């Protein structure tokens, strides 16, 4: 359904130069599937998601939606694309207009696209509120009257109001209490099954990504370093950065937690304004060699459906 082909998003700086937030990313998401996009803060995950929805104009590469290049869509097709691709934002506190009632927030997209009018519009809004676990009476209230979890439910209802087929979930649980996170994730999974939705699930919570996603892409400094089915990636990570990320997942069993080996990364992430010429992880990688520093690794399929960019894998 959705495909990124060598996608690049660069931002010009006032003092000159470019910030290469996304620098050659490629992946696809099948209809009704969920791809997890993981990596540390600032690696380009959210920028990638926004570029897929047309919120950022790509500097290079292509975004394909249902087989069509988004950049070459006609005006009518572009309007259709903005309806069928929606986003659930990270912060439920700042993503809702405090001056609008919940009904107006959820109904805004319906009004823009002219999907329902009159009584049908209100019936649709009430249906959406019920779908995400809220009551009809909540439609007359304002965002500040709700908890964080309830606000995120409002954000989900707003995204679903225009009947999308593809939804970017941009760290939808990171700003919520731990006790609420599982409720929101289960809600998203239930809605996916009910409405046949396709998700890009952006997160740094690797345990949750394993639970909800069928495939996982690992991102570092604007590029994807590993992509595989969830079971493959967690069972046998092939890139050193992926191994470091997975080693940081806490284990509930204290005996196993003490016995397992942690991968501690040294140094800082390089600047996206001036990324290194070779492997972008080479400066922090415990297994880096001369070739890693000098030349960017090729994207290889190291086993069926398992891809990585590392000189030490698949050579």
What does this protein structure show overall?
This protein is 34% helix and 23% strand. With 315 residues, it is an alpha/beta fold. It has two domains: 2-213, Rossmann fold (3-Layer(aba) Sandwich), CATH 3.40.50.300; 230-315, no CATH class. The strands form two sheets. It has an eight-stranded mixed beta sheet, with helices on both faces. α6 (178-195) links the parallel β7 (166-170) and β8 (198-203). It is globular. It starts with a strand and ends in a 6-residue tail after the last strand. The mean pLDDT is 91.
Core attributes:
315 residues; alpha/beta; Rossmann fold; 2 domains; 8-stranded mixed β-sheet; 4-stranded antiparallel β-sheet; 11 helices; globular
SSE layout and pairings?
Layout: E1 2-12, E2 18-29, E3 34-38, H1 45-52, E4 60-65, E5 68-69, H2 75-84, E6 85-88, H3 102-113, H4 118-131, H5 148-160, E7 166-170, H6 178-195, E8 198-203, H7 206-212, E9 215-220, E10 223-229, H8 230-235, H9 240-247, H10 254-259, H11 290-294, E11 299-303, E12 306-309
Parallel strand pairs: 3-8, 3-9, 6-7, 7-8
Antiparallel strand pairs: 1-2, 1-4, 4-5, 9-10, 10-12, 11-12
Percent of sequence in beta strands: 15-25%
CATH class annotation of the largest domain: Alpha Beta
What is the total number of structural domains? 2
Question: Which regions have little confidence, pLDDT < 50, spanning 5+ residues?
Answer: none
* Helical percentage: 25-40%
Largest sheet: 8 strands, mixed
The end-to-end span amounts to: 32 Å
Question: CATH superfamily of the largest domain, called what?
Answer: P-loop containing nucleotide triphosphate hydrolases
Strand order of the largest sheet: 6-7-8-3-9-10-12-11
Outline type: globular
Mean pLDDT: 91
The CATH architecture name of the largest domain reads: 3-Layer(aba) Sandwich
Tally the beta strands.
Answer: 12
Enter the CATH topology name of the largest domain: Rossmann fold
Total number of helical segments? 11
| H and E order | EEEHEEHEHHHEHEHEEHHHHEE
**Structure classification:** alpha/beta
Radius of gyration: 21 Å
